[in-house]
Amino acid sequence: xxxxxxxxxxxxxxxxxxxxxxxxxxxxxxxxxxxxxxxxxxxxxxxxxxxxxxxxxxxxxxxxxxxxxxxxxxxxxxxxxxxxxxxxxxxxxxxxxxxxxxxxxxxxxxxxxxxxxxxxxxxxxxxxxxxxxxxxxxxxxxxxxxxxxxxxxxxxxxxxxxxxxxxxxxxxxxxxxxxxxxxxxxxxxxxxxxxxxxxxxxxxxxxxxxx
Length: 211
Fold this sequence. Notes:
Order of helices and strands: HHHHHH
Helix content: 40-55%
Distance between the termini: 55 Å
Number of helices: 6
Low-confidence stretches: 1-17
Number of strands: 0
Radius of gyration: 19 Å
């Protein structure tokens, strides 16, 4: 009797080539944001976030919802709608504990970006996107709303230039060149002025996949 040896086990699938850079950027943005937000954890978060109608606490809750939602979109991959899962932070918990919740939401979207194949697409109202797009959206949410909250508390914080440059290249193809990336990102999202350019009253990013 001829014995046929078992076929060798297939090697584990390598993560998508785009994933390491974006997951690293997302992890760095999370650490930067949580460190900045932690400086104000003991203050009154019922005050309005800078430039928003939301309180600082509601803005933090929006962040947790948004990051979880981006992960959910990449997992469910709807073609024309948002997902039905909504995440929120315990309204009775102290801010320091809520920051743990934000870290969990960020880890959720980071691992989802890492494990999503490059050809996957999911719906977003500002352009159906791939994993890199949703990573850039998550970084944008983290950095901009950290800016909104820290400004409300008078803390001098701005998006790091490295992450801002990556987000601009991915989501804001028409961003004006030759400026500091953090300043440009704040201008693109209506939060600041740039010399010679009017402040933007309306804005949105372009999450569509470009080659």
